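TICKET: design request
STATUS: open
ATTACHED STRUCTURE:
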């Protein structure tokens, strides 16, 4: 329970940082919300994009996946959101590096800005949150025990309690009803052919 709470908090903080990052400076003071999402696949240009068509879109999708993962306590969904944030951030860095020739880092507003740091940090927090979460508890159900069996002399084993019968049958708790009942013929009268006929 505590692990799920701690992991959820880390995941939500990471998702918030990722969504907020496009509204910060990414490179040379240019905000991430001005980079078109299509430029990440074709090459970064000076063309400006709308908010919904910028890199904010995959980050917003990652934040939505994070919310669903936190509600469902799914480590897989939270980790997927972290991979989306990191993947698009690294892809943007590759495209900007190709367009600029190299990536520069400086503290005077030129080069990589704090928006990139927020995006990378948010993705890392999402992955850490997924690792901290314990996920859903798994219910371990034991298989039902089979009914007790009683061996018999012939035929398959019988199940259930021993049958009720007479004293002889009850003295044999594993006997099946009717298995040992042998019909007994009545005694025949002895006849002697040499005996004289009766009166």
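STATUS: resolved
RESOLUTION: sequence designed for all positions
ATTACHED SEQUENCE:
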């Amino acid at each position: 329970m505590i692990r799920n709470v701690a992991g959820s908090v880390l995941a939500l903080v990471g998702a918030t940082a990722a969504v907020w990052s496009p509204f910060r400076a990414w490179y040379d003071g240019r905000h991430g919300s001005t980079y078109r999402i299509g430029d990440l696949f074709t090459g970064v240009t000076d063309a400006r994009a709308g908010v919904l068509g910028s890199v904010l879109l995959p980050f917003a999708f990652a934040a939505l996946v994070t919310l669903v993962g936190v509600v469902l306590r799914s480590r897989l969904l939270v980790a997927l959101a972290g991979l989306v944030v990191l993947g698009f951030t690294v892809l943007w860095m590759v495209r900007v590096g190709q367009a600029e020739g190299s990536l520069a880092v400086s503290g005077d507003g030129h080069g990589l800005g704090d928006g990139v740091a927020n995006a990378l940090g948010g993705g890392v927090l999402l992955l850490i949150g997924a690792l901290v979460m314990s996920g859903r508890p798994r219910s371990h159900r034991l298989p039902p025990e089979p009914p007790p069996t009683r061996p018999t002399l012939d035929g398959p084993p019988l199940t259930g309690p021993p049958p009720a019968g007479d004293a002889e049958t009850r003295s044999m708790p594993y006997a099946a009803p009717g298995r040992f009942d042998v019909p007994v013929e009545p005694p025949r009268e002895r006849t002697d052919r040499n005996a004289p006929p009766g009166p």
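CLOSING REMARK: The CA atoms of residues 62 and 84 lie 6 Å apart. The longest helix spans residues 75-100.
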